[in-house]
Amino acid sequence: MAKPQLRLINRNYTCLWSGQAVSTVGDYVFDTTLVLWVGTVLAKGRTWAPLAVSGILLAAGIAVFLIGPLAGVFVDRWNRKATMMRTELVRAGLVTALTLVALIPARDLPLSAWLTLIYLVVFLLNAASQFFSPARFATIGDIVSGDVERARAAGISQATVAVAAILGPPLAAPLLFAFGVKWALVLNALSYVFSYLAIRAIRLPAGQATAADAHESAGEVEKEVENRFRSLRTEFAAGLRFFGRSRLLIVLLTMAVMAQLGTGALNTLGVFFVADNLHTATHFFGFLSMAFGIGAIVGSLCSARVTGWLGARTLTWLGLLVTGLLVLVYARQTVLIGGLIVYGLVAVPVSMLNTAMTPLLLKSAPPELLGRVVAVFNPVNELAAMLSVVLAGWLDGSALLGFHATIAGIHFGPIDMIFTGAGIFIVAAAAWGAVALPGDAAAAPEPAMQVETAR
Q1: DSSP state of 78
Q2: What local confidence, expressed as pLDDT, does residue 62 receive?
Q3: Cα(51)–Cα(56) distance, rounded to whole angstroms?
């Protein structure tokens, strides 16, 4: 009897996955380090420190909103492996440049210069990611065959991100406070170099080519790109018309926007919540992401079975409801252990409802319109997240500065008041979904609409 072999689908996917695993851990270390660096070092003691931290998330969101809808067009034109390799080199170069500047003592540069540089690097890194992510997604389709194996690859990728969320953030605080910010930056730069080498080792199937490869010898690339932009405008307009006529899509988008307006505060003010409400040193901040990652893994393992029990529609609004209620509980936590437990529990329904929304979105439109549906859904959702980040930073750093009140015998400060409002927003989104989400029959796209918009 042959001995079972341990393998990760195939050699090519193993290379791609290993690069993702290392670079994702590096990204989590980098993101957490920047939040801590800005919030507790560069802007330490400043009343507008929450606004400075929110600028990091805002810079990332702007990159997604501006670059994301168009990046896929260019990725379709370029060689995917080369796109991923070049993107990793660009990201490694950006982080290396920031590392070199970080060798300068913080006091030798104006605070405005530091923040501008950090925001610029974050924007460019996330802009590059908009090219890397679709190229990686398409490459999985080239190197992994069959629905079962591709589903397995997607599951491995999601689990990898969750594990990175557990491992990465706790490394950031010790690196920053014990060794300085430059070492956390070096770690992230090296992770991109490792990813570059892993992608380089991939052997794509013979004969794979992009549209640009096919026309390059004939000198038709510029004409093809011009035609692509013209077609893009026409098809995007058709997608907008379809989106506006779909009750399911409008309700899902409304729910997502309302939820984002609530959850953005948790990301923006997390480090300040640890210090002010959980009464804990800020170097424990990374453990919040660790707790969330553990909860996300648990939710992912249970989501398929729960979706089968309740159905995608019910799990979507019910998951939001449970999330909102847990956020209300999280806002009242005053010790680290309680905050970690509740924040980890928040991740469980979040991962479940994310799984439940996927089949709803997939059946919301015919296959030829799904790309345009996502091109509308994601940027609007990202815009809501950006507004939430700005609003949370402004409330804590300005409007609610020094706020203290007692309501029904419960004391509220600025951050827990904002988190309470976030929980209420999420509960409201769940209530709207429970009432407004159409049933399965109404959710399916009409055949006539498919023909009209596909012309």
Answers
A1: S
A2: 84
A3: 9
What's 367's DSSP letter? G
Contact 329, 341 (CB under 8 A): no
Cα distance between residue 183 and residue 128, in whole Å? 22
Instruction: Tell me if 369 sits within 8 A of 342, measured CB to CB.
Output: no
Q: Which uninterrupted H or E stretch holds 154?
A: helix 147-174
Contact present, 170 and 274 (Cβ < 8 Å)? no
Are 182 and 21 in contact, with CB atoms under 8 Å apart? no
Longest CA pairwise span in the chain (Å)? 76
393: how many CB neighbours lie within 10 A of its CB?
25
Q: Measured between alpha carbons, how far is 293 from 410 in angstroms, rounded to an integer?
A: 30
If we measure between CA atoms, which residue out of 429, 425, 431 comes closest to residue 331?
425
CATH code linked to domain 11-203: 1.20.1250.20
If one counts every other C-beta atom within 10 angstroms of the C-beta of residue 63, the result is: 21
Which pLDDT value is given to residue 343? Answer: 94
- The C-alpha atoms of residue 93 and residue 385 are separated, in whole angstroms, by 28
Reported as a pLDDT band with limits 50, 70 and 90, residue 441 is very low
Instruction: Write the pLDDT tens digit of every residue in 206-255.
Output: 544 444 444 444 344 445 545 555 566 676 677 678 888 888 889 999 99
Instruction: Return residue ranges of the chain for CATH 1.20.1250.20.
Output: 11-203, 235-455
Please name the helix (run of DSSP H) or strand (run of DSSP E) that holds residue 207, with its range, or none: none
DSSP-derived letter for residue 285 is: T
Q: What number of helices (H) and strands (E) belong to the chain?
A: 17, 2
**Cβ(333)–Cβ(342) under 8 Å?**
yes
Structure tokens at 136: 């990686």
**CA gyration radius, the chain:** 23
User: How far is 84 from 65, CA to CA, in rounded Å?
Assistant: 20
**Rounded Cα distance, 175 and 430, in Å:** 40
Non-local CB neighbours of 328 within 8 Å, separated by 6+ positions:
419, 420, 423, 424, 427
Q: If phi over 0 gives left and psi between -120 and 50 gives alpha, with beta otherwise, what is residue 413?
A: beta
Q: At what angle do helices 336-362 and 286-310 cross, to 10 degrees?
A: 40
Report the alpha-carbon distance of residue 266 to residue 244 in Å, rounded.
Answer: 31
CATH number for region 235-455: 1.20.1250.20
Q: What is the pTM of this model?
A: 0.64
- Cα–Cα distance, 108 to 368 (Å, whole number): 55
H helices present in 38-110, as ranges? 49-77, 80-102
Q: Identify whether the C-beta of residue 196 lies closer than 8 Å to the C-beta of residue 22.
A: no
